[in-house]
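Let's sit down with a protein and look at its sequence and fold side by side. We need material for that, and I hope you will provide a protein of your own picking. Once you have written the record down, we can walk along the chain together.

***
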Amino acid sequence: MMESPAVQFYTKAFFEELAARLNQDADWARWGKALTARIHCTAIDLKRSFLIDIKKGRVATKEAKPDTPANYKFEGKYEAWMALCKGESELQQLIMAGKIRFTGSMPDLMGLAGPLNRIVMVARSFPKTF
């Protein structure tokens, strides 16, 4: 099987690839059926935001504005997002260190630890350029 070509990290193409892979992922499907959430991710230094829109487990992504409504908002510099996607840091570490700012319900976020971890694992799994 041919591996897909590398996509540029933190672009529309990257988030579209992430959604496509999650929608085909068996581990994701286990949580997915009941999961509905809007996750807003911003690379503040790039002034680039994306929405990961999950409806009953089905993932769609799109470019977003800073004020796009979401259940959870994560804001950080490109460097922090890159460290997360390269596997050099974990999301919880980045939040605790203040490198990624989180807005939303922390108890709800803890309940989403499994699905969020799966999103990160899938994001790490395909070829990308930084």
Observations:
- The beta strands are 7-8, 37-43, 48-55, 58-64, 72-76, 100-103, 128-129.
- The chain has a mean pLDDT of 93.
